[in-house]
Amino acid sequence: MTENFVGPDGGVRCRWCGGAPEFLEYHDNEWGFPVDDDRRLFEKLCLESFQSGLSWRTILAKRENFRAAFENFEIDKVAGFNEEDVERLLQDEGIVRHRGKIEAVINNAKRAQELVKEQGSLATFFWGYEAKTDSGIEPQTVSTSEESVALSKALKKMGWKFVGPTTVYAFMQAMGLVNDHARACVSRAKVEQSRSRFQRP
Question: Could you confirm whether the keyword Zinc appears in this record (predicted)?
């Protein structure tokens, strides 16, 4: 079962948020709440690609460093990065120094610009892949979904990199495209309420 972590307030939460002290605030205030801000969507997809093969704790602990290194993940600024920036980032001990992933972020910023031009916003495109609410799948028991596979395929076709179905599913969980909080978790109802009020782009 996933719903067996009891927080300091006595509330039951998803098991994973008991894995590290910094997870609690992230779980309670960010994870699963719907997002339509392009900068935040782009940042999260980039950070999920950096997480590939690593733990989310590693990435969350370095998140502010990543923001500083990548101009707060402003799409137009990152799209303008060049080889000098890649070399600079490879020397930055505050982030994950992986050439392929760094170059993927720059590439993906350029692809994001194209997508915004075509769709109007990243949010419009991403929310077209929102998970079905009646899937019947127990929360946090799968690492991909029909929608994450489809979104991954669409992004790859447009030239995005490091956006496999598992990476995309983690992005969808975090950005509210699916409510994957455990059924007994105190945040599940809050996220559902937020999703019901949320204006889809």
Answer: yes
pTM beyond 0.90: the answer is yes
CATH of the domain at 169: 1.10.340.30
Task: Give the chain's domain count.
Answer: 1
Q: How far apart are CA 92 and CA 36, in angstroms?
A: 30
Question: Based on C-alpha coordinates, what's the Rg of the chain?
Answer: 17
Residues known to be catalytic: 26, 48, 56
Q: What is the per-residue pLDDT across 111-156, written as a single tens digit (0 to 9) for each?
A: 999 999 999 999 999 999 998 876 678 899 999 999 999 999 999 9
149-156: Cβ within 8 A, 24+ apart: 151/126, 154/129, 155/111
Q: Provide the residue range defining the domain that includes 108.
A: 5-197
